[in-house]
Structures are given as structure tokens and as C-alpha cells.
Amino acid sequence: MSQEGFTGVPASIDAPEIGVGMLGYAFMGRAHTNALKKLPYMIYPPPAVPKLIAVCGRNEAATREMAQRFGYEGYYTDWRKMLEDDRIKLFDNGGPNDVHLEPCVAAAEAGIHILCEKPLGRTAEEAKAMRDAAEKAGVKHMVAHNYRFVPALRHARDLIASGALGRLYHFRAMYLQDWLMPHFNTARLWRMDKSVAGSGAIGDLASHIIDLGRFLLGAEFKSVSAVTRTFIEERPLPDGSGLGKVDVDDAFAAVVEFDNGVIGTLEGSRLAAGRKNYEMIEVNGEKGSLYFNLERMNELNVFWAEEEHKETLGFHNVLITEGYHPWLEHWWPAGHIIGWEHTFVHEIAHFLDCIFNGKAVAPFGADFDDGYRQAVVADAIVESARTGTQVDCTY
Questions:
Q1: Is 276 within a domain?
Q2: Residue 172: how many CB atoms within 10 A of its CB?
Q3: Helix or strand run (H / E) with residue 228
Q4: How far apart are CA 387 and CA 384, in angstroms?
Q5: Average pLDDT of 205-226?
Q6: Would you say residue 121 lies in a domain?
Q7: Are 253 and 284 members of one domain?
Q8: How far are the Cα atoms of 160, 207, 267, 313, 391 from residue 150, in angstroms, in the given order?
Q9: How far separated are the first and last CA of the chain, in Å rounded?
Q10: CB 48 within 8 A of CB 15
Q11: What's the pLDDT score for residue 395?
């Protein structure tokens, strides 16, 4: 095979560049960065090519290591300094919940587009302030609700929106993990500190299933009746100096109603033994049902109430890997599954498309208004549990 003219260097991608500043070097910082690097050659041609300008974090050694490992041009330990870097046009906030509000408002006021991890704010009040600042500045804004970009869940939304399930009756969702089980002896991390996290399982897990309820049903929450529980009230401090108080919820359960008449339940726990990342969603309607399990994220289970072949009546397990399923054209042949990390590729590609092609982030992505509405429901769960009453969701 002739190699004439081949230099071994790939041709440049004919797409605009956008400079990215990342806040956070841990779990979400790495997940987002992996997607930023993978996007240009898998979502091809890309709407834009992310250029990794800088990463920012409180721990200088860890931040420097992140920059070197992932190929950022530099790093900062002060997000204010990073946002003064005029090469940065997209601020990706993957930091803890207590550094969502102030940096995102500052980025908006500087005219920088913003992608922020969920929950948008520790409270609905914080989320509203972020939404208002971004809308006033006219920048594009998106909350990183990456499960909207799971092909099976997007396919489920399309089925529901098409009317395939008919009138909708029920929505039930649970998000269960076990990393706080006693035998792990997990230290009191920031996710167990109300001043940093805002809440526990509610902000960590409920934020996802609240958002998916709104996304899948195309409806707003109307009211909630909830209980919360903190099962382990003290945990070892990270520095080994003793025990620290846990002042957030370990688990919650809620009965909910939507403004379209659907009723349902939400449940979340970080002490559900054996459940690693078990997010289950089920929707029941007059013509059928569907359910999804994130631990088997390439599958969607569908039941049709009036199926022609009665001998096969029951739930059908559908492998969502065909080229005509959402986003699968960018990946592998049918049957070759994709993973959790690919949802961030889809998500960021959508956001870049909105930035460079003047498109609205919603309804397919979650903009800051969606983040605010999710926070209103989360606050209602907290208030209902505190007062022992049903609480209306007032937006």
C-alpha cells in the first residue's frame, strides 16, 4: 500500500476551537476531561474542538498532576485567576457543590459559557441565582445531567413523546448505592457535610431521578410527601483525628405527583447493600410500560399491553446498540455496547452544538432553568421530611 505523502500526522479537524477551563481534578473533572479529549474524533465532524487550557483545584500537587496527565496547557489554584485567562470561553465546573454558585456567576458575568455539574445549587435559591446570572449575561448554560444522554433513556423519552404508551399513569424511580455501608468504614467526606454538599442522597442521587422524571414525562412535579434518614450519624474524619458529625441524609423516600396527573415514587440511598450504581426508572401507561436499569445501560425493557402475539406477551429486553438508536452511529457495530463515560461525550457535543450553532440547550439538554426546577423539588423533599407534611412544588 502506497504511503506517498503520508507524514504520520493526522490532518487538522476543520472545526472551530474553544478554550476550556476545568474546575475540579477528581471524579467529575476526570470524567469530563476524558469526554473533551474523545469528542473530536468520535463525534465526527465535531461542532467544535475543545482545547484544554487549564484545570483548577485547591490542592496544587493534585491539580498539577491532573494537568500533566490529561494534557492541559496549565493549571491554577484560584478559580478567579483562571477565569481571567481570556483564552477560556467555556467554563466546566466539576467542583464540589459549594463552588458552583460563585464561580458560575463570575463566569457568566465574564461572558463565558458554562457547563456545571449537578446539583446546580445546594438550594433552589442558589440555583435560581445562577440561572438568572447566566440568562442576564446571554451565555449558554447547561447542567451536567448526563443520564439524559444515555441512548436507552433518550429512546425511552422518544417513545413516550410519540404517544406509544398512551396516557401515562405511574413514574417510579430509585437510585441506590452502597458505598456508605458500615463495613467500608468510609470517612466523612465533603458529600456528608451540609455546608459543602447542601444535602446527602437528595443532592447526590435524587437530583438525577428528579431530572429524569421531568425529562421523560415532559411534566412538572406538583407535590411531594417525603421522609429522610441519617443512619450513621458520625464517621471517621479523613485525617484520622477522630469522628465527625454527618449532617445530611443517608436515604430518602418520597411519594410524588406531577401536573399531568401521573403519580409516583422516588427513593434513594447510599446504604443499599449490593447496589453499586443502581438507577431504576419505570413508566407505566395505558398502552404499555418501560423500565431501565443503569447497571445495564445498553438495555431498555418494554411491554405492550395489546401485543398481537399473546404467546410472547411480556416485557421485551431491547439491546439499544443499533445505528439508528440515539448517538450509536458514532460508535461501534450493533451489539458492541458503550459505557457510562460515553454519556459525557454526547452531552458535551450537544452543548458545543448549541454554542456554535445558536441552538437552545433545552429540551434535550438540561439548562440552568432545568437545574433550578430540579432544586425546587429537592428542597420540597427536605421540607416535607422536616415538617411531616405534603409540600407543593412552587417554581
A1: yes
A2: 18
A3: strand 221-229
A4: 5
A5: 98
A6: yes
A7: yes
A8: 16, 16, 21, 27, 31
A9: 64
A10: yes
A11: 94
Distance CA 11, CA 87 (A): 23
Please indicate, yes or no, whether residues 165 and 222 belong to a single structural domain of this protein.
Answer: yes
Q: Which three cell numbers stand for residue 225?
A: 410527601
Phi and psi of 321, rounded to 5°?
-140, 10
> Taking the mean position of all CA atoms in its chain, how far away is CA 86?
28
The span from the CA of 160 to the CA of 357, in Å, is: 28
Same domain, 247 and 115: no
Q: Which residues contact 355 (CB under 8 A, 6 or more apart)?
A: 18, 47, 48, 90, 113, 140
Neighbours of 282 (CB within 10 A): 17
- Going across the sheet that includes 90-93, the strands are 74-76, 49-56, 17-23, 90-93, 113-116, 141-143
Domain that holds residue 136: 17-146
Q: From CA 268, how far away is CA 215, in angstroms rounded?
A: 18
On the question of a cis peptide bond just before residue 119, with omega within 30 degrees of 0, the verdict is yes
Per-residue pLDDT of 21-70, as tens digits, reads 999 999 999 999 999 999 999 999 999 999 999 999 999 999 999 999 99
Q: Assess contact for 232 and 251: CB atoms under 8 A.
A: no
> Which class for 320: exposed (0-12), middle (13-18), buried (19 or more C-beta within 10 A)?
buried
Distance CA 208, CA 137 (A): 27
